[in-house]
Structure formats: C-alpha cells, structure tokens
Amino acid sequence: MSAQTEPFATMPVAPKPALRRFHQARWDEPIIFELSQPGRRGIGVPESGLPEVELPEDIRRVNRPALPELSQLHVVRHYTRLSQENLGVDLNVDVGQGTCTMKYSPKVNDIFVRDAKIAELHPAQPLDSVQGALEIYWRLEQILKEISGMSRVSLQPGAGSAAIYANIAMIRAYHAANGESHRDQVITTMFSHPSNAACAKVAGYDIITLMPDADGFPDIEALKAAIGPRTAALLITNPEDTGIYNPQIKEFVDLVHGVGGLACYDQANANGILGITRAADAGFDLCHFNLHKTFSTPHACGGPAAGACGVAEKLVPFLPGPVVDKTDNGFVLATPAHSIGKIRPYLGVTPNVVRAYAWVMALGAEGLRDVAEIAVLNNNYLMHKILRIPGASVPWADKPRVEQVRYSWQELSEQTGVHSEEIGVRAADFGVHYWTSHHPYVVAEPFTLEPTESYSKEDLDEYAAILAHVADEARRDPAFVKGAPYNQSIHKIDPTSLDDPQQWSPTWRAYQRKHGAR
Amino acid sequence: MIVGLIVNPIAGLGGPAGLKGSDGSEIQQRAIARGSVALAGRRAAIAVRALTKHRPDTIVRTVAGAMGADAAPHAEVISLAAQQPTTSADTRAAVKALRGVDLLMFAGGDGTARDVLDGGPISPVLGIPAGVKVYSGCFAISAAAAGLAASRFTGDAEEAEVVDLDEDAYRAGSVGPRLYGTVRVPSVRVRLSGRKASTPPGTVEGIARECVTRLREGVRYVLGPGTTTQAVGKALGLETSLLGVDVVLDGKLIGRDVAEAELYELVQGGPAEAVLSIIGGQGFVLGRGNQQLSPRVLSGLRGMTVLGTQQKLAGLGGRPLLADTGDPEADRRVCGHVRVITGYRESTLYRLISASEDA
C-alpha cells in the first residue's frame, strides 16, 4: 500500500451504497392555525385614504374572520419547513405517480406567467386592453383543435374533472335540446378515470361500468347488452389505466352512436398518442385534455390546473361561455347559442393557458409527436427493467403498452406478505413517489408507473433499482419493509380517518368540530 | 393414472331444504323430512364420466356403495366397513384406505373437505362441488369441470386452503369462514374455485338502496342469502334472513327462510324475480348456498338481478359469473350478460355462464 493512500485506508468510512441515501426533513411543524397568537401581525396595513363604503347588511360578517395571526418571519419559516417536508416534482424521479402524467414544467414558462402583463391582468378589464391575452386563448384553441380534430375547444374549466363535468353538462343539454331527456344512463369502463363516473353521477345519470374481460379489454359484449334508448353517452379513456390501447375503440363509438348516444373521450392524459391518433378520427363527439398532464402545466394539487373541452360541430352551440372569437376588429368574447353557462368565472386559468401555449410553441408539431414517442419508449424500457424484478408482473402481459403500465406485486406479496402500499412507503425512504391504483383494485397488489418524456435513462434505472432493492428487502426481512418509513417527515399514519366521514376534516373548522377544540 | 373417489352421500342434503348445511344426523333427518335428495352421488358420476371420457385409461378406485361405487360403476372397489348413514369417520377412513392413488377426488362440501384433510391424504386432492358450503380452494367450479381438471392432471400440484363455517354459528346468522389447513391440488388453476372473499363492511347500503328503487309492485322478489341481500330487506324495513331465501311482495315478507318446495309454491303465485348476491371470489350466483332456487323454481322466474360490489367483480379477474344448479338446461336459461347492481345508481352488465359450460 502506498504512503499516499495509507491514511485513507484507516479512516472509518463505509462504502457508499448503490442507492441514494435520502432523508426527508422532519420539523414536527404544527399547522398554521396552531401557531396563531392573538394580536401578532405580519404587516401593518396603512390607511387607504379611500372613502368607506357601506356594505349591504346581508353580506356583512357578523364575526371577524378566524385567520391565523403571525409575524412575517413565522409565516416564511412555516412554509419553508413545509416545503422541505414535501417530495415535490422538482425533487424526485416522479414516474411512480402513474396516470398523473408527471413531467417537467419548464421554468421559463413560469417567468412568462410572472410577467406583469399576465400577473397583473384583471379578468374584468376592457377587451381592447387584453387583446394579447385573448390571442393566446384563441391560438391555443386552434392548436388543440388540430390535436383533437374537434371543431371547437373551450379553455374555461379550471381542472380535469371540471372539464369532464362540462362535457357531461353539454351531453345533457344536447339530448334535452333534441327532446331526448329520457336518456339517463352513462356508460364508462372500470379502467377509465373514475372522474368520468363521478361527474356523470353528479349530473344526474345512472352509471353503467363495463368490467375488463379476461383479455384486459372492456367487454364489448357487455357494451352491446348495456346500450339502448336510455343511453346518453359513453365516457371512456383510451389507452386505459393499464396502458393498453383498446383496438376496438371505433366499434365502441359506433355502437353507442347506433342507439343515439354520444361518445366522449377522456384524453386527460394524451401523452402516448399526441400527434398519433385524434379523438375526431375515432368518431368521438367530445373530448377533454388536462393541460396539467399532457401540456406540462402544474397539477391542481400543487397549483391551479386547467382543462380543455373539445367538441364536434353539433355540440359547438352548447359550449361553456364565453369563447374567444377572432374578428376583423380583433378578438371578442361570445356566448354560444345554447351554452351550458359558465364552468368557472371569466375565461379560464390564464396562467396555465399561457404555460401550455408556450410549451406547445416551443415543441412544434414534430416536437409533440416526439413527446409521445419518447414517453412510449421510456415506458417500455422501464417495463422491461421492472419485469426483471422477481415477484413483479404485468397482467395481460401479451398486450403492448402505450405510456403507462399497471403492474402487480401479487407474487411477491403472496410469498412475503408485504403489500404494494408498503412497498410504496418504503420506496419513499429513497426519495421517490409511488402510487398503487384507483379503487377498487382490479389488478391485485397494483402499482402504476408512467415515465413521461421528461425522464432520462438514468432516472428510470434509478427508479427500477429502488424497487428491486425494496422487493429484495421484502424477501429478506418483510417486517422491516412493513415497518417503513424510516427516513420520512412523519412515520406511519392511521388511514382509517380517511374512510370515516365522522373523522375526516378537510378544514380546520371541521377538525375542531369533529375532534374537539384544541 | 389411478384416481381415488370418495362420495359423501349426505353432502348437500341441507341445501334445498334451507338448512345451510348437512352436518349432524339431526339436520340430515330434518332435510330428508323436508323432501331433500342428496345430489353428491349424481355429481360424482358426472365427474367420473368427464374424467374417463377425456382420459379413458384412468383407473378409478373407490369405496363400495353410496360412498363411491354407485357413482363409478367400472371402478375398483376396496373393502371398507362404513356406518349407515355414513359419518365423518368413514370419510377419514376412506382417505387412509385410498392412500397410494395418484389423485384423490371427493364429492362433498367444505365439511367433507375438512374430513379429507383430517384423513391425511398423501396424493393431491380435488373436490367435486356437491355441498351446501363450497368455499374451500380445493373444489373445481362444477362436477364436469372436476372431471376435466382431473383428466388433465400431470402430477404438478399446489397448495389450496380448506375453509369451513361453524354451521351452528352460520345458522345463527354469523358468516365467517375459518381456515382449517391446506391440501395439495392439481395445478390447473383455471378450473378451480378461488377462495371465498368477504364483503368489505359498509359498502352494501348503496347497493341495497338502488335495488329497492328498482322493485315494482305486484312482483314477488326472491331474495337469496348473504349480507348484501339482507341489506335490501333492511332497507325495506323487513327482518329477512341472512342465510336463507326470502320472498318479498309489495314491501311485505311473504316467505322467510323458505325451503325449495315452499319457494316453488310462492313463485307460482304470481310474477316473480330473483335478487341474488355473488358468492365471494368464486363468482357463483346460483348453486352455492342457495340451492333452494332449484331448476323448477328458476323456470318460474321472469328475471334476475345480481347484487355485488365492484371489488367482488374485480376479484374475478375477468372470469364470468357462474351458475351451477345441477341442471345445465336451467343454467343455460339464466346465462348471458346480467345486470349487476354495484352501488346507488351504479351497475354493470356482466357475463354469467353455466359452470358446466365448456367442461
């Protein structure tokens, strides 16, 4: 041993492990209402100098708003700590959030949005002062028309489910206008996004859900048995959550058309078929996109979302209003003749429309197709890696996959007693997200991976290596995996409150009511 | 290949009589008094015919009389002194006497499966479903399927669970199968029943509410056993039975926990439809736990609604729902895509086939 290396050889340094040594920050941070102290202030608001206006009696508050009272320092510290306890999209290899279409949201698009020209827009400004913003709406609509093949597109919905709801509201209005309000059934599939069933139910429809057959496709014979004079529409995702593209989709649409129903395509996630297939070409009457999935804008849980509804010519009069029209005198707002009304106030979530427009323009038509092709390539590469892990499998493995795959740990679980959720919690100890499936689980011990175009080969290799490691841990020491997480902000939580209306608390007020004031 | 055969002659006796099982001689006598005929021998004969049709060189070895030879006329018969009527001990003794076969088939239900397990079988076993409770994983989905599966047996085997219910607790209205042990079964999984899964608590109220909105005046609704169908009774404010078959007409209970003969009379009295639940992970709608709905009762029904959670359907993994009334013609009449109510204003159309189909 040479004299130079000798000192190092004696140092008690363990070799670096193959996987990243991650540890989430842990601050035990209370929620902001618990930090409130009466009289504490963040800012002394100066007198405005404006005359006071008498508010009508019926809209005046009786009690002061129960807002938390904190200094600026404590507000900054609170939210910075929370941000450190969060495994955000900019931190982790976010391919484990299958069906969410996680991808990079270019920072430059946020710079556009923060520009005063967008940030300081007021939705009630005179139209001649917002022609640029209207032009972006109009241009993005033209792009989405081209992508979907539809006649017009509304950008008003503030989220994906809001777009589905807008579509079902148009379906209801269309049938009513044709004197066919007796159509009270909506057909969907088990592997379509559950928002389709939920929105249709909220709109007053009975739901018929087609289960997958032994080949993993929605059962077309069941569709034939389900359709009839009461059929209002088919709401369907394709490729479904399994990543399998239904090759009979045209027959599905034709069968529903054959009984006078409409066909509505959930393209929330169009990442695998962008520039390859179009909703209109399969005969669909309506479709929707989530701008926060395929078109890279932030997701609703982490920021404002946006949905886009595309419709065929016969449904244009029913679109939510207003829509942006181009005239010789510039861009104007118009309300379609039989509009279902507003899905949200004003035009839409303008910052996300700007982000999506910037994203598409940066890529161009060829770039959009590249997105789909790279996403499909990434998915099939990752599937190849995952299937090498003993105990992991893909139900209906003989079917080609598009942009995501619903995998199964059934074999591993049967051999070790470790469940898919527990593998996901342990995977978080290595700094990655992991998601199982919508409920109910159709695939046993499911997990759903969707590596979009943003992720590199090294990212996918790292993710697969983490899952391989956790699966190996499950075999060697199942109790250890079941005891995870070890490196997280919080340890295990009791999930029963999530399923118990007597306990769940979406607001502080609800929490105080259900759990007693603290 | 040598296949051993044991028939539990009294298996299934309690089913058509609405007695939830056939364990114990008092129950068996009550069943016979109610006009029940044991079907185990007939089912075993169907299985043996299917087995020897698909694999003619098979040697069947069995016990004399109703415990086997009656169902398998060309079988080798071993000597074994059995009591009359037969008991659990006879089944256990037969298992011991038939050690040395390549595959041991038995016709019965979960109680018989327990006795087979207790007898210490050395070879893999395969159940021919003929009991009231057939929840164990060692049963084929029908008698014909058992014969076919046996004919394809190559020696590969895997573990399957033997579960049973305490019949006294079951009659008292508490459902909950208990695991008794495992046996080795032929690795021909497609034709074996999955183990019965329990219904997650709190998911049936919406199904019951939807079912109630669909009930029409003047129609006699035959409510099958199970927590889901009992919830329908509860939604109607009726004290229906958990494990029996009840009949409801215009919001009133006109028959509670009825035997086959009484049910037949009731459905003859006017238009009648069935409301049935799915039996756990196996997908059975007819022929498991509701043998009161005999072929002649079914022929008097105008329609059938099935109740089941999406979880239950999902658990079938794309496999169809099954009918196994013992009469392929009766099965066939109810086959096709049936309406399954999965929640309030939620349903699906799901394929139902005869368990004897393609076997």
Model description:
The complex is a heterodimer of chains A (518) and B (359). Chain A has 518 residues and is of the alpha/beta class. Chain A is 35% helix and 10% strand. Chain A contains 16 helices and eleven strands. Chain A has helices at 6-9, 32-35, 72-84, 107-114, 116-119, 131-148, 160-177, 194-202, 220-226, 249-258, 350-386, 410-416, 420-428, 457-476, 478-482, 508-515, and strands at 152-154, 185-189, 206-210, 231-237, 262-266, 286-290, 307-311, 323-327, 330-334, 405-408, 446-449. In chain A, helix 11 packs across helix 14 (457-476). The longest helix of chain A has 37 residues, at 350-386. Chain A is globular. Chain B is of the alpha/beta class. Chain B folds into two domains: 2-191; 205-354. A nine-stranded mixed β-sheet of chain B has the order 10-9-8-11-13-15-16-14-12, sandwiched between helices. Chain B has a five-stranded parallel β-sheet with strand order 3-2-1-4-5, sandwiched between helices. Chain B has a two-stranded antiparallel sheet with strand order 6-7. In chain B, helix 2 runs parallel beside helix 5 (143-151), helix 3 packs across helix 4 (110-118) and helix 7 crosses helix 8. The relative contact order of chain B is 0.12. Mean pLDDT of chain B is 85; it is low at 189-199. The A-B interface holds A 190, 197, 201, 205-216, 219, 221-226, 440-442 and B 309-311, 313-314, 317-319, 336-337, 342, 345-351. Strand 3 (206-210) of chain A pairs parallel with strand 16 of chain B.
